[in-house]
Amino acid sequence: MERDIYDEDHEAFRDLVKDFIKRHVTNEAIERWNAEGEIDRATMLAAGEAGLIGLSVPEEFGGAGMLQDYRFRTVVMEETIAAGAGSLAGALGIQDDLAVPYLVHMGTQEQKAKWLPRMATGEIIGALAMTEPGAGSDLRGIKTTAKKVDGGYLVNGSKTFISSGATADILVTFVKTGEGNRPDAFSLVLVESGMEGFEHGKKLHKMGFQGHDTAELSFTDVFVPDENLVGGKEGLGFVQLMMNLPLERLSIAVAGAAAAQAGYDWTVAYAKDREAFGERIIDFQNTRFQIADMSATVDALWAYVDRALLAYKDGKLSAEEAAKVKFWATEREWEVLDAGVQLHGGYGYITEYPIARAFLDARVHRIYGGTNEIMRDIVSRQIAGKR
Ligand SMILES: Cc1cc2nc3c(=O)[nH]c(=O)nc-3n(C[C@H](O)[C@H](O)[C@H](O)COP(=O)(O)OP(=O)(O)OC[C@H]3O[C@@H](n4cnc5c(N)ncnc54)[C@H](O)[C@@H]3O)c2cc1C
User: Fold this and answer.
1) 2.40.110.10, 2.60.120.1440, 3.30.70.141, 1.10.10.60: which CATH number matches 127-235?
2) Where in the sequence of the chain do the CATH 2.40.110.10 domains occur?
3) Ligand 1 test: best mutation among 161, 327, 330, 357, most atoms within 8 Å of CB?
């Protein structure tokens, strides 16, 4: 089914992204990222130079000024995932969807001026550090504290599962600045790589997204100056996280739809090419039926995700609607990629093939950004009229 959410500006931007991919997303680069467990800085800088980063950063701070129009980010996601570079899609997504928004929408003027121009070029890599060994879904259970001292805060604690955590220069870090677990007991502070007492821990070995780093972090009496308190006011951290949730969830839904689309396209091409019993795989009725199902699912995915993209652009995507599209899209993604792996036979299990990598990457879409169980809880609580 033809999609109709893009105009000529988006398509012109797509050409630019494709050109970047032609130059920088080679099989050799993908293998290198996977071997090193991170996207190298040169690639991030090249992405910045090509205009693929900082899409929501206002023009005055060196960005593209797209603020609420997530369609440009969707183009980046579609093209990088279709190129078999899910890890690059992930790294660009962390920068633009999880780190940059806290400065664009919630930073002070000084914070914006200090960080955004270099985040838009890829010179400064950002990350969002919320999860801890003992608190993921239940974020109010975090133990990392930021104690007020003269001129700033002393941060103590640890974080885990932080995407871009090994390579990030600046980490939007969720900390406790108050007692108890009321929403106003939390703040977001900007921890900078190199601050005394701050350590990027080890990179975690994951089943998917092999080329994008995920790491532990530790904080021992890290002095964070007052000027690094996001928004310049204490006690706003929980509300700030809530404000970015629709975007975070939408971005995962988009990644899911883009991966399902890519998986479908790879599978159709493969099934037309591969032969068994003297016939093309696609000539078997089972294959055709599977592909028909995949095709319908991909159409439905885009219809729903595109609707959410437009709602977001108009400022109308609620946290609940974003939760709904996140769990639904990532589960359809899983079905499509699973069928795609099956139709690739043994090759579907070999990570040299993009279908295998996309399948492994997809598994975490149902876990991070809030697990799909938590998404269902949010949606059903609202329906039930429960707080
Ligand atoms: C590759 C990767 C990248 C990540 N990137 C980041 C990042 O950049 N920044 C960051 O801060 N975090 C990140 N995370 C962390 C991620 O968001 C959490 O892992 C996720 O929110 C789940 O938290 P948890 O692992 O503590 O699981 P738990 O919260 O311990 O959940 C375990 C199980 O219990 C279920 N469960 C929990 N509570 C409920 C409930 N109320 N009702 C029903 N079921 C429930 C969950 O759904 C899950 O199935 C990342 C994780 C991974 C794996």
Assistant:
1) 2.40.110.10
2) 127-235
3) 161
Q: CATH 1.20.140.10 occupies which residues in the chain?
A: 239-384
**What spacing in Å lies between the alpha carbon of 114 and ligand 1's midpoint?**
32
239-384: CATH number? 1.20.140.10
Backbone angles phi, psi at 167, to 5 degrees: -105, -10
198 burial (CB, 10 Å; 0-12 / 13-18 / 19+) is buried
Q: How many CB atoms lie within 10 A of CB 251?
A: 25
**Helices of type H across the chain:** 8-24, 27-36, 41-49, 71-82, 86-93, 100-106, 109-121, 237-273, 285-313, 319-343, 354-362, 372-384
Residuewise pLDDT in 10s, the chain (387 residues): 899 999 999 999 999 999 999 999 999 999 999 999 999 999 999 999 999 999 999 999 999 888 789 999 999 999 999 999 999 999 999 999 999 999 999 999 999 999 999 999 999 999 999 999 999 999 999 999 999 999 999 999 999 999 999 999 999 999 999 999 999 999 999 999 999 999 999 899 999 999 999 999 999 999 999 999 999 999 999 999 999 999 999 999 999 999 999 999 999 999 999 999 999 999 999 999 999 999 999 999 999 999 999 999 999 999 999 999 999 999 999 999 999 999 999 999 999 999 999 999 999 999 999 999 999 999 999 999 986
131 in ligand 1 pocket by Cβ < 6 Å? yes
- The architecture in CATH of the region 8-124 reads Orthogonal Bundle (1.10)
Q: Which residues are catalytic?
A: 248
Alpha carbons 78 and 36: distance in angstroms, whole number:
24
What atom in ligand 1 is closest to the CA of residue 165?
8
